[in-house]
Design brief:
322 residues; mainly alpha; disordered C terminus
Amino acid sequence: TLSGGLFLLVLALLRGNDAGWGSAQIVAELAAAAALLAAFIGIERRVAEPMLPLGLFRRRAFTGVQLAAVGVSASLFALFLYLTLYLQDYLHYSALQAGLRYLPITLASFVAAPVAGALLGRVQARVLMAIGLAGTGAGLVLMSGLDSASSWTALLPGFIIAGLAVGILNPAIADVALSVVPKERSGMAAGVNDTFRQVGVAVGTAAWGAVFLARGSNRVATLLAGTPGATGGRPRQLVEALTGGHLAAATRAIPHGARGLAIAATHQGFLTGLNAILVIGGAIAFLGAALALWLVREHEIERDKPVAVAPEGGELVEYLAA
């Protein structure tokens, strides 16, 4: 029921712009997703050995660390897809060239993670989590503001700050996720936290796609008002064509005299959509920082000995390579 509910939720988010958010199809998918997720909660409350003991969420720190995991996953990690589209389809870098430009994030994460690990137990975990999430939000906001004259280096300050922030955040999340439950439940706690991370990425990626296409298409329609490029669903088709790397083919149906304007408007629409989701993603990370600071309390965290947390840059590389 959990997998089915999440599948339908992501499916509805992906199809919402095409089918219409008020269409019977999308409403049915969202309703079915809600029903399946509610059924999952009901089952977990009744079975003797639940997969996810819901009583753990009465612990503020347990809830807070899951929200922190969702916050960073739904913001920064989910936005890597759209940053990659910018590097490859807008700036025309190859996959290797685009990947190399993510190195500042990975290297910054490797530098910060051991420092954060050494601070665990000395600095309150909620403070480290709040700093990490707030830094992630600041990095995303710094990445926004892209225009037609921007190069990839416009992203560099945001990349470095976000990388440092993730390096601070990941050890704190790992520490709290395992230390806030009894030892015998540490494996379950690790699995729950990983699930929340994956849910954040999946739902975030789908949601950002809906916002990106909506904002980008609206911008294209405004710029091309009164021209053949603004007819029907063409603005959306043009933005999708740019993200798919076949904008030239998509503009062949537009009269030659209006083709150049359509291409320029599509590029502007792409940037409008990308800037919008970067700013909103930053806001999500800032919200996660506030929730972590509010919910996580040190007295709920039990450590028998200092926790040695290895840098989790490998996870970051995994997301970048996906």
